[in-house]
Amino acid sequence: MSGPRLVRRTLLAAAATAPLARLAGAGSQPLRLRAAPARVALVGEGWPSTEVWAYDGTVPGPTLRGRQGERLVVEVENGLPEPTTVHWHGLRVPVGMDGVPGSSQPPIPPGGRFRYELPLADAGTFWYHPHVRSAEQVGRGLYGLLVVEEPERWPVDRELALVLDDWRLGPDAVNEARPSPHDAAHAGAYGNTVTVNGRVVERVEVRPGERLRLRLLNAANARIFALRFKGAEPWLVALDGHPLAPRRIEGPLLLAPGQRADLVLDVPAVRLARVDLLDEGDPQGTYRVTSLAVTRNEAPSPAVDRGPPPALPPNPLAEPDLAAAQEHELVLDGGMMATMMRGRAPAARRLPPDPRELRALFARGLFWTINGRAMAEHGHGHEPPLLRLALGRSHRLAILNRTAFPHPIHLHGHAFRVLARDGREEPGRPWRDTVLVAPGERVEVAFVADNPGLWMLHCHVLEHQGSGMMALVEVA
Ligand code: C2O
Ligand code: CU
Predict the structure, then answer these.
(1) 6: helix, strand or coil
(2) Tens digit of pLDDT for each residue in 29-79?
């Protein structure tokens, strides 16, 4: 097996659950979060540390925890040499708390502070990261998990968060990521070293026979993981924080940048049990991300088949009325090898930007368009919205990818049901906030536009987001 890999260490299970978890309680002090440069041991002891940008000095930043129905108050301090904001990916919050410079708030200047007040409408696995020069700021290590607990305890033995990321490290573990028009116009910036919870990890210690709830997050700028668990048959219980009817995973689990998946995994009740987490999505071949391993040679208790876990309680999302929904189409275009795709994709109603227009955009570092328009990252405050959605109504979006690359499309402020891909119904019609659209594919989603404001819609390959594949959606 080849692929990205340096050297791995053991991560104790306790560490994997993020020791810095902070619970907000009713009436408690606001949580504080400071974004600043730091050095962390990405590769592990015995290797030089890497210069990063981090929340509270750690990558990932502290896991923020709250309970559904509560309000999380987070006071963010900017210790970076440039402006920043924090976006609470997947939380359905008022637009003024969404962390988008221009439409939500002015960016927080160096040395400045901003107080975020976040109502926790939905339980699930969410995350936070900056929304200013995202490729650069998230890529340097600014991200963390945000866990909203269900009101009632859910029956597992233990929770394990696995936050995946990749880095482009040189010898000496120096971060060599640099903005590159080549990356931006292709698949985005892939790294050569994959970390789990901010470390290259040989194995995560687990106990034989225990039932784990895994909270997976892909915090990488561009890498799309295709995960397979060798040695276990986990149940998928939620996507992007939102519960679905538990089902076994068939084939690899695709986890695109920004996406989350909650799984229930029963560690085999055998001596020295080991579950390998493989990524089959790397262009250079399958490699092992890490393993869940029992290292103490204790006799396990007899195996019991626990069967499917109970479904998580659903989140309070308004069900779209498909018969009455207004229809919209989003055509993704641009990038290298785009013309290749023209013949393959079905003809769209809208015209693509003509080649001359595309060349002019390329000259400005904009490689991608949505419905013919490319939005620059600093265009937040000024651009007119690409879509205007009537507040309180059901909407159906068809997203057509006419490029040669996959794009995880993220909508702020809402969750949508994924209805179909190329006319084939999506199993379970899951609720998501980020949907992966393959080259040539047409994906249909639907939702009720019930959160008023000016919301971002963009590709979560951050180099694509930063080079045009971004738009504003007005809900009013
Ligand atoms: Cu996770 Cu607009 O972002
Ligand atoms: Cu993209």
Answers:
(1) coil
(2) 789 999 999 999 999 878 899 999 999 999 999 999 999 999 999 999 999
Quickly list DSSP for 343-390: TTSPPPSSPPPPHHHHHHHHHTT--EEETTB-B-GGGTTTSPPSEEE-
From the number of C-beta atoms within 10 Å of its C-beta (0-12, 13-18, 19+), residue 122 rates as buried
Asked if residues 328 and 398 have their Cβ atoms less than 8 Å apart, the reply is yes
C-alpha 89 – ligand 1 centre gap (Å): 6
Q: Is the dihedral of CA 135, 397, 361, 439 positive or negative?
A: positive
The residue whose two tokens read 């995202």 is 134
Using the predicted structure, report yes or no on whether residue 263 has a pLDDT greater than 80: yes
User: How far is CA 95 from each of CA 42, 314, 337, 414, 474, rounded to the nearest angstrom?
Assistant: 34, 23, 36, 11, 11
> Is-contact 464 407, C-beta < 8 A?
yes
Structure tokens at 379: 């265009």
Tokens of 405: 């690359």
Helix (H, G, I), strand (E, B) or coil at 338: helix
- Token pair in block for residue 433: 């906030």
Contacts 24+ apart (CB under 8 A), 247-250: 247/308, 247/427, 247/428
pLDDT computed for residue 35 by the predictor? 98
Angle subtended at Cα 403 by Cα 353 and Cα 426, rounded to the nearest 5 degrees: 120
Query: What letter would DSSP give residue 283?
Result: T
In the chain, the percentage of residues whose pLDDT exceeds 90 is 80
Structure-token match 């080991």, residue found: 274
Protein residue with its CA nearest to atom 1 in ligand 1: 89
Strand, helix or coil at 184?
helix
Q: Left if phi > 0, otherwise alpha if psi is -120 to 50, otherwise beta: which for 44?
A: left
CA of 33 to the centre of ligand 1 (A): 18
Residues within a 6 A CB radius of ligand 1:
87, 89, 129, 131, 258, 410, 412, 456, 458, 460
